[in-house]
């Protein structure tokens, strides 16, 4: 039986990935600082769920101990201190994001090399791309080769860039078999949908679900900024295909090329709600007055560039955004109802 170690498996992408590995009959160990996964039952996603802080090198050393005393076949490093624009662009979390995620990556890569694991996947982010190539909402450049000269617009992006280099250095110096991918805004059910760390697709679905008929839905910024969003099931498929080939180690983009404005994304969520809701774009002084900090917009434009992945892998993602938004809206609408019922019962 093959074995896999999933760091951050208590989170969104890690939960889906662990489920897929379990379905493929892997023996799966999840390690996460959360005591339990919020949405999955552990039997569905792993054989062992270890609550643990990966900033602690002792814990990392222990969890690399594989069953049968053989090194893990596959290691997935998805644990990070992260969130959407409302978390990484306010400035308040910069020190923690850099410190926490860098420690996790330093511990992981060191132990993976020491234990001679089969291979290790590192999840970087599109946030490492230079801001100056993402100023035009209609024409962003996120080709892998455009990464340098580096100029990410967030400390989260700088840490990702550092850790990409860290994993690649361990490949060069210690022959660690690494795979590095840059995720572009991954969304879907069983992920953060409230609380401040949620990303735009989840936020739009939640707001549309909560807004009454003839109400107003708030969208941060002009609404003209662009992004692309990849459904988590296709993300997992792309990760596994990339992980299990021997042609190249990345970095490579994993994302969708279906670029939309954030107002278009919001309108999709509104249409799925079936309600008559008006978009209100909140920015500038109005935003500061209401929330006490600058509107966290991030880059003006971003789109995945999938040429390299398609060329190397002979496969590419294809699921339309609206399809993914449909199942995300259904799930979030359900969460909103459950949360309301729980508040009423208290
Ligand atoms: P997530 O927040 O749902 O999952 C990350 C998990 O890491 C969480 O469960 C968290 O508890 C865990 N974690 C954080 N600190 C830890 C610690 N000290 N010890 C152990 N566990 C710890 O995020 P996600 O959306 O599933 O993202 C997974 C990875 O992909 C992250 O590295 C993230 O930066 C990267 N990424 C995600 C996206 C996206 O759109 N979701 C985009 C780009 C990159
Ligand atoms: N989160 C959120 N919530 N964003 C909103 C909202 C809202 O209610 N309204 C408008 N937006 C806008 C943000 O201001 C931003 O311009 C855009 O929607 C996208 O926001 P997010 O989805 O939160 O983040 P991002 O695309 O800027 O960055 C995300 O993707 C990266 C990879 O592409 C983050 O999740 C990063 O952590 C990730 O690495």
Short description:
By secondary structure, the chain is an alpha/beta fold. It has two domains: 3-186 and 230-254, Rossmann fold; 188-228 and 259-302 and 321-345, UDP-galactose 4-epimerase, domain 1.
Description:
- The protein is α/β, with parallel strands linked by helices and 346 residues long.
- It folds into 2 domains: 3-186 and 230-254, NAD(P)-binding Rossmann-like Domain (Rossmann fold, 3-Layer(aba) Sandwich); 188-228 and 259-302 and 321-345, UDP-galactose 4-epimerase, domain 1 (Alpha-Beta Complex).
- Helix content is 42%, strand content 15%.
- It contains 12 helices and 13 strands.
- The protein has a 7-stranded parallel β-sheet, with helices on both faces.
- Strand 1 (3-7), helix 1 and strand 2 form a beta-alpha-beta unit.
- Helix 1 (12-23) packs across helix 8, helix 5 runs parallel beside helix 6 (155-174) and helix 9 crosses helix 12.
- The radius of gyration is 20 Å and the shape is globular.
- The protein starts with a strand and ends with a helix.
- The model has no long low-confidence stretch (mean pLDDT 97).
- It binds nicotinamide-adenine-dinucleotide and guanosine-5'-diphosphate-alpha-D-mannose.
- Nicotinamide-adenine-dinucleotide binds next to helix 1, helix 5 and strand 5.
- Residues 4-255 form the NAD-dependent epimerase/dehydratase domain.
- It holds the Pfam family Epimerase.
- Keywords: NAD.
- InterPro entries: Epimerase_deHydtase, NAD(P)-bd_dom_sf.
- This is Nucleoside-diphosphate-sugar epimerase.
